[in-house]
Structures are given as C-alpha cells and as structure tokens.
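Request: Mind sharing a record?
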Amino acid sequence: SGVLAYKYLNLSLLDASGIGLTTVGAAIVLRRLSQDGSKKDNTPPEKAPRRFSFQLWNDQHRLSGDLEELNNVSDRTLIPNQNSPELPRISMDTYKVLAEKMAARKTERQKVKAEQAKHKNTALLEDLNAGVSIQEIAEKFSPRVFIVNFDTAARPVGPPGRGQTLLQQFTDTISMLVAVCSKYDEVVVKVSSPGGSVIDYGYASSQLLRLKRAGVRTTVCVDKVAASGGYMMACVADQILAAPFAFIGSIGVVAQLPNFNKVLTKNDIDFMLFTAGKYKRTVTVLGENTQEGIDKYQQDIEEIHTAFKDHVASHRVAVEIDEVATGETWLGLQARPTSPELSSPFNEAIQRGLVDDLMTSDEYIRSKSTTHDIIVVSEFKKKRGLVDLIERSLEASAEALSSVTSSFSWLKGDFDKSQGIRVENQSPFRPQ
C-alpha cells in the first residue's frame, strides 16, 4: 500500500508535497479496502476485462489511408473530371478503344464473381442439406488468419517478475485462440528468438502443441532467428517458413559456470554445502567439484540433448536428426531441403529439411489476405489515470524498501535456518 512505503522514511523531513503524497497514498489504501469489501459480493461482474487487441490487417484496411494519399500525389486518371479545366491526356478515339477494353474487362470480372457466387451458394446449400450447422458454415466461408508475435527482443521470456513476461502473454494468447479458432482458421506465429532456458522454451512449444491438438493449422514464420529454444518452438508447427538469411537450428545444449574454490582456499575461507541425495548438487560455484560430479553434470546435459533431438525428430520426420543436432546454426537457404529447382550457392548442402520454404512473414501473410481475414493479436493496454500511476509508483517503492530490509534481516539475528535449505530446480541448462 501507499502508506507502507513511508514507514521507513523520516516523517520530520516531509514537506507539504510529501504530506500531500501521503494523503494520496492513504486515499489509495482506502479505495483498495472498499474494493476488497465489494468483492465479497457474490454478484458476478457484467463483463470480463479486455486482455487483447485485434487489428484487421488486409490490404484494403491497413493501406486505405495511404492509397488515398498516394492517389492525391500521383494521379493516373487518363480522362480528368468533367469539372476539371485540365485537357484530356489522350485523344477521344483512343479513349473510345480504352473504354471498350475497360467495359469488356469489367464484364469479365462480373462473370467470374457471378460464377464464384454460384459455386459458393451451391456449396452452402449442400452443407445445409447435409445438416451442417450455420455456425460451421459461417466459419467455413469466413476463414481467419491470426497473427501472433513471439519476439524476445521486445519483452523478456521469464522468469516471472513484476510485469507480465512474454511467456505469460503467449500462454494467455494461445488459450484465447484455442477457444475461438475453428478448423478453417490458421494461426501464424512470428518467432524471433536465439534461445534460452529449457524450461521456458519447452513450455512455449507445449503451448503451440495445444493449437495442433485443437485442430488449428499453425505456421511459424522466422524473419530473423529461431535457434536453439527458438527452434524447439518452431518445429512444432505444421509448417516453418524462413527468410533466406534467417538463422535456423542450433539443436544443442550448453551450460557454464565459474568455480571460485581456489580463491577461497587461497584466502583460508571454508565453503560448506549441505545436501540430501547423492546427486542433489553435482557441481557448484564455490565448492571443490569432484570428477564424479562433473561426469554426472555432463550426463545430465547429454540427456537433455537427447530429449531435444527426439522432440525435433517427432515433429520434423524428414530430418536426419543426427546430421542437424550438432549445435550448428544455418541460414534459411541452407536449412531448406535442396532440390534441382532451387538455384542458390548452397545446392551442395545436405537435405536438412529444418524449414519448409523460403519466404518472409509479410509475403506469406499477404498471400492469405485474398481468402482470409488477417487479424493481428496483441496485448490490450489500458490507459491508466494519474491515481493508478501514483499507486503503482508507491507500491514499487514499498516493495523495494521491503526487499532491502529483508535482505539485511539476518544482521538482527532473525535468520531462519529453513531459508538456507531450498527444494527447487536451479538448473542452468539452456538449449543453444
């Protein structure tokens, strides 16, 4: 709360502005208490808060303003408006021929549209007679492509902190898509990641598996990099598209840590580590590492690598896994299966099959825009008022002060021995 942030301050130093902030903090606390009291009411909320923003991304929607401005700058009209004093740019005889061609083209387009509408109506009637629900018919004739970004440069993957991590947002997005997508929809995930923790990226790939199990077609587009953990995610998709010079692969595991035991020994400092279980701690940063512990640590890394290889092989059945699971990274040109039709400097490369085609995400999405509604999914960011901003600032200050004081609580003799024993996974393994 806001008031707690000031219990560590010297109140005698507060001026009028400080008293004013304290008053604001007290008001915020009272508001929260009233909100907590109102939550006891069993009346359900009228509507759940928004968590996502949706933007239609077809050309006619995202480029409408730009095209209008372009037409104002570069007019391609051959015959000016009747009210315009500008002279015609072509002769009338030429215009008549042009008008006939344009009329014929318009007629041809109308015939094509009429034929398409006829086929569509026929298919619709067949579905209705077959007992297909109106909802499914609507889904079939109005398919959608949902665009989701997974970019580690924009937001940290984990671990969870004060703000929502990329992995948390990605999980919420997948849950929403599983609920709203039909079998006629498609999800395109734009992955940009050089890798990271096995735990994080194993969980992220499991989220993509949820889409596949729900019968939703999934495409991963890699414009820059999907290496190590990034490829652990990408390989789950139905198809992987990569830009020619995107980095792909790095199917391997790396773990590293320094050891300061010699420094401690030189300075006559003893390091004591208490464990229960033979392999509870195999190697440490401060203790003296034994060869048995080092061998066990390497064995653990190999087992994770084997699991990584099996994961890729189960989703990319055409891949020769032993040839690509060397920890190497390739360009998209090198990762694609070679074929006689592919003309590139990398024709001599082995058929790796790590990606299905060479294409940027923009190119693929635009190819879908003629038959699908393109919808970009992003996090809904609520506009916050002044009180909310002050509240968050005061809470952050209180949390920071509390963290500092608790860090030095052992000086007061308040150290709880149980805090020195932790039952948690501290594995530094990272697929890279």
Q: What stands out?
A: The longest strand covers residues 144-151. The radius of gyration is 31 Å. The longest helix spans residues 92-129.
